[in-house]
Structures are given as structure tokens and as C-alpha cells.
């Protein structure tokens, strides 16, 4: 196992760029937000990513609360046509914080340089505006933002149920 240590906080993008320096090859990898629980079939997401020749593939969900999650729009081929700066309304597709990433898509434009940078606010819009192919696959699994206390409890309950009720969750 390889890992990186940030001497000073580098933001979500800076940490990613630093970790990408440790990759042995240019195979697609899975990136997960650490403050959400999203029940996604990773294999299906990877197969979708590969089949679309995507630079970055997003796992998407239907927002159940207004204005809480970043919205996206997709076309009939599931290509993301808009990264909404406004938040998704109820029932709209939203970014679930799980991605399959082709490292070459990021390496063409960004390198670790020790500066703080945001994946969501800097890298994603930069790549999208540069024409990198973004696709989205809607997942119907449970999505919970565990960064909010009441939802943290809900996520704990979901994981407990999925473990078969084991005390070792």
C-alpha cells in the first residue's frame, strides 16, 4: 500500500494530485469523497467509464433535498453537458462524489506543485471547460451525506442493515 502525507493542507485537488504521483500506471482509478456514503456498483461504473472512453465518470443520484448537492445535466448519451454552479433541485441529477478517473485526463493539465487547490471548484471545471469528456451514470443505491450529524446516524443504520445486523460495523 502506498500513501501520501500532506505537510500542509492541499485541498481536495492538491491531495489528489499528490497521490496521483504514486500511481504505477495510467489505469483508471476510483476517487471517493470521504464525507458521503453512496452505495454504488464500482464494477458497473468502471465498465461504463471504459465503454464511453470517458476522462472522468461521475456516479449520479437523484437529489432528495433542495439546494444541497451540486447538480449536473446529461444528454441522451449520458455525457455531462453542464456542471451546475447552482445546487440541484429535488429529483434532479446530482454529483454523488464518486468518480472513475483516467489519470491522463488530469495529468495533461494539472501537476502537484504544493499549492492548495479544490477538485470540485478548480480541477473539475477546468477540465470540463477544456473539453475533457465527462459522463455520468445514475446509481439507485442509498446516498447519505455523513458530514451532517442526522445523516451520519442514518448512514450508520444503513451500514448496520447491509452488514446483516453484525455488531462489527
UniProtKB/TrEMBL annotation:
Record-linked InterPro entries: Mannose-1P_guanyltransferase, NTP_transferase_dom, Nucleotide-diphossugar_trans
Listed name of the protein: Nucleotidyl transferase domain-containing protein
Source organism (scientific name): Brucella endophytica
Nucleotidyl transferase domain residues: 1-157
Gene3D superfamilies linked to this entry: Spore Coat Polysaccharide Biosynthesis Protein SpsA, Chain A
Taxonomic classification: Bacteria, Pseudomonadati, Pseudomonadota, Alphaproteobacteria, Hyphomicrobiales
Signal sequence bounds: none
SUPFAM superfamilies named among the record's database cross-references: Nucleotide-diphospho-sugar transferases (SSF53448)
Amino acid at each position: 500500500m502506498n500513501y501520501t502525507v500532506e505537510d500542509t493542507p492541499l485541498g481536495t485537488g492538491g491531495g489528489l494530485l499528490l497521490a496521483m504521483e504514486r500511481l504505477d500506471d495510467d489505469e483508471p482509478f476510483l476517487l471517493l469523497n470521504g464525507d458521503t456514503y453512496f452505495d454504488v456498483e464500482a464494477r458497473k461504473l468502471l465498465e461504463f467509464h471504459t465503454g464511453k472512453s470517458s476522462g472522468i465518470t461521475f456516479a449520479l443520484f437523484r437529489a432528495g433535498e433542495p439546494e444541497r448537492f451540486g447538480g449536473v445535466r446529461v444528454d441522451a448519451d449520458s455525457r455531462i453537458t453542464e456542471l451546475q454552479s447552482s445546487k440541484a433541485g429535488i429529483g434532479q441529477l446530482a454529483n454523488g462524489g464518486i468518480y472513475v478517473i483516467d489519470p491522463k485526463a488530469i495529468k495533461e493539465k494539472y501537476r502537484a506543485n504544493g499549492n492548495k487547490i479544490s477538485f470540485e471548484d478548480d480541477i473539475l471545471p477546468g477540465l470540463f471547460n477544456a473539453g475533457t469528456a465527462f459522463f455520468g451514470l445514475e446509481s439507485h443505491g442509498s446516498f447519505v451525506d455523513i458530514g451532517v450529524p442526522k445523516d451520519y446516524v442514518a448512514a450508520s443504520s444503513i451500514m448496520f442493515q447491509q452488514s446483516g445486523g453484525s455488531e462489527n460495523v
